[in-house]
Amino acid sequence: MIASLAFTAPWMLAALAALPLLWLLLRLIPPRPQRFDFPPLRLLLDLAPRRRTAARAPWWLVLLRLLLAAAVIGMLAGPVLRPSGEAAQRGGPLLLLVDNGWAAGPQWSLRKDILAAALDNAAQAGRPVALAALADPVADLSLSRPEALRERVSALQPEPWQADRGAFAGAVAAFLKAEPGAEIAWFSDGLAGPGDGPFLALLAAAAARERPVAIYRDPAHSALALAGANNAPDGIDVRVLRAGDGGPAAGTVRALDLRGLPIGHAAFAFAAGKGETSAHFDLPVDLRNDIARLEIVGESSAGAVQLLDRNWRRRVVGVVSGQDKDVSQPLLSMNYFLSRALQPFADVRLAEGTSPGEAIDRFLDQKLPMLILADVGNLGEAEDKLAGWIEGGGILVRFAGSRLAAADDRLLPVKLRDGERTLGGALSWEKPQKLGSFAENSPFAGLAVPDDVSVTRQLLAEPDIDLPGKTWATLADGTPLVTAEKRGKGMIVLFHVTADTTWSNLALSGTFVEMLRRIVGLANAAPPAGSDGPGAEGQAQATGEASPVFVAPSRTLDGFGAFSSPPATAQPVRADRPGTGRPDHPPGFYGPPDGLIAVNALAPNATLKPLDLAGVGAQLQPYARTSPIVIGPMLLVLALALLMIDALAVFAMAGGWARLRRPGGGAAGAGTAAALALVLAFAAPHRAEAQARPFDSALKTHLAYIVTGDKETDDVSLAGLKGLSAYIAERTALEPGAPVGLDPARDELAFYALIYWPVVPDLPPPPPAAMARIDAFMKSGGTIIFDTRDAVQQDAGQSTTPAGEALKRLLSSLDIPELEPVPPKHVLTKTFYLLDKFPGRYDNGETWVQATPQTPEDSDRLVLGGDGVSPIIITSNDLAGAWAVGPDMNPIFPVSSGSERQRELAYRAGVNMVMYALTGNYKADQVHVQDLLERLGR
Description:
- The chain has four domains: 84-218, Rossmann fold; 220-309 and 555-611; 323-523, Rossmann fold (3-Layer(aba) Sandwich), CATH 3.40.50; 699-928, Domain of unknown function DUF4159 (Rossmann fold, 3-Layer(aba) Sandwich).
- 29% of the residues lie in helices and 18% in strands.
- The chain has 24 helices and 39 strands.
- The chain crosses the membrane at residues 59-81, 635-658, 664-684.
- Keywords: Membrane, Transmembrane, Transmembrane helix.
């Protein structure tokens, strides 16, 4: 036991020589004199004390303090108790060989502790040490003091490739020749390597010459690894390897995406005596294509990780739709048709709950190779950014619609005629048109022309000399169905029909899927701007260029299998032949984020073999933790306990307990408690004040208006919606709450179905961020009433008015659909009251809504998406002025005709608009009731 005791700071033990002097000093210092009260009436009684005070400190108190000083000195000396097996030390140099490849990662902490203990033993015995990490670059071996190697051992980490022992054979041989009496300790990982022959022969020769050779190994643990993942049609299969029978015979492989989020788990089990098995992931295709990393749970090494690169993923396509969100019939939306057509071969990302401009910005920031815009007209501020993305190699596919027909857009392959061609219109066919042909120079070449696809409406291209070269598909009459134009490195493709079934039944055919498949195939050869990844490689191969493409490391794996920044020694890899991990090409992801290439630690056909040490003749040692026991913390606890006992003894000898028992003696304690309570009271957290405005709009229907900042206008809006709310509560089953004023830049708009917006000519429009929220609100099914309140000026013959110009500026940043005056049979005319016009304070203004195309086959279909609700209503009749009431609920403003009948119709128009926004197009379906009942009867 005494031989196992060592000190990290033995010079501190010299302070023990001062203990006799401390004994004398403590004996000479008497205790504190006893204090007596001096009451005048007891003067004679207290002159003779009842007991005497000692002149010297008690022997037990002196001994206590000596023990305290000895404990502090012993703690500062750093005593360490080593296991008895390590007490006996050999002499001579020591050579430490460490396998720090990926196979050492799972038990690296244990091996590092054993290595540190070996250094400590060598330092205590005064032995010089040489250290070689066999996965690091080869260097000459030289002896150093163990203390100088502690920092290197502390920083030593496993590398994400296998140790190359054969490369160190020459350096080890030279060291043993220079140091004939050196002892060898090899901390192996138990995994056989390709260059082990010369290295093992060298150790066997050293052991034969009776040189001490110790090899540490762990037969109870076998290295596990993944290799050769295969994306089969029914799921993902990955090979699981082991180097021996040690360790668990079963486990779990986890699949993660690029963000590290788990996608799935798969179990595996080894048969007895087998070194290979497989794990199978039975996941849907869309989930499988999100997997970027496979790893063995609980096996922290780079070999237990299999990275999956871009070859595993379908191309990512962002879809932005200008169509209003249709909650009641989502299976008829453009997003649904596009998603179903793209899902077999592409990863689809839909933009929902946001404006088209924001969605385009987000997709461009994600560097997607392809975007699809379905009936998106006004691109706003995103147009310039989108144009630059196309120039850099992006593929933009656009589908026609009413919004695109009404827009003035430069991101089109051809120039379009104003309006669209409709069956039964001025530019019409006698019957629907069939598909004509696919151009031979287009990606659609070779596709069979279906005879069951018909088109009833399209956007017409202006004829010019370049139109035939830009046409990929035509109709039977020769007009273009699909046109395209190359812009820089990218391309713009336009389908002259919608992505749903409103203009044609192309979206229902298999040809539509094949057309999209071939367009998506172009995105692989056209990477986005700033990318020189696989897209550039594909272009080089297509043009016959022989020069290889190299990609730089993006994120690499460390020895534990965790992602880290690439080391300074990492070099680019060939995109077509990345190879496996090695010092200059560590495992990880290489290339840009949209074209990652995976480099793994093991080759797809790799196998693991256990290390054969039968012929070495060395002493085999298990990995067992033999860390020394540090006694210093125990002595610190003892010193603190002795200090506490000493303090209590001095307190008692000074009469402290007696003073506490006297009346009034606890005043100090009470004062301390009061001060503590005061501090706690001030430190206690205070409950935050509740917000002045509760969000009760989610629980009750409220009419809302936009706060313009003009006090007179805002007061009229509030009074008008107050009057309309009271009218609705009186005439219908709906009981609206109090009207709410909204700031589109700050307030949540999703709580409100209908928002009234009075247009003020002299005020600037809201900032772009607020307009983007307005656009998203309209796309999500909300309706906004824009009221210019200038019907009198229009009636006076003014072609343009200040309010009208302000409305144009306001709508210029929104994706507004094609508009038309309210048709006679529109749902808005019959949602609650039967109306033929929508007056306010004035009755001569026109009311505009989203245009609803009609065809002879479906003449009663007056609404489309968004549950049949137009996202915008424009009027000039000053609705709020007719609805406005004062505190006595009497009208504030007169109407233009002077008749209260006009005000009554204005209220009814408001009721219809509210019911229209809340209930959608159910009134339009009433005409089909008889057909529905007959169908149910069958």
